[in-house]
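re: ur question from earlier - yeah i can do the single chain one, its not a big deal. heres the input i used so u can compare w yours
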Amino acid sequence: MTSLGYARVSTMDQNTELQIRELEAAGCERIYRDQGVSGTKTSRPELDKMLDRLSHGDEVVVWKLDRLGRNTRHLLELLDGFTESGIKFRSLRDGIMTNPDSELGDAIARAMVTIISAFAQLERDQLSERTRAGMAIAAFHGRTAGRREITVGHPNVKRARELKTQGLKPADIGKIIGTSRATVYRYLSMDAE
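and the output i got, formated as tokens:
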């Protein structure tokens, strides 16, 4: 039996360190990780690799249920596939284990998975609904969603141009105004437009 872990974070800014540490402590021999991949994506490269590698008797371990399935239906499909292939499943934070060799334990675990993932899906749906409602209110008041556009008149653009005329390099300008060198180049190119 091989114990395989799967970790996922939705954005590149997040990190999998906590998940990895707990998966290693749980005895995972190999850990697959998707970085910057939303749980709603159909294809997650590392998850796909792990699923292709699984064989009878292996165990899949995740930090939490929401790291594995896109939604309740997808999660249950994965668990059905695990059971049919003789693969055990364990969710560390949710305290859930399935074992294809134990019908009673598997039935209770599946019921818990269904309940927990249904509530997680409800939470995601409510968040999305609140976001859409907030955007509609903002639009009603003439505001648009997203980051405000930076124009030539923006203080950072003006400051970057001043520092450039003083002979500073873009990297140094970025350190002074608190932006990346690439952003400084973008600010400086606005002057040419």
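The chain is about 50% helix and 10% strand. not sure if urs matches, ping me
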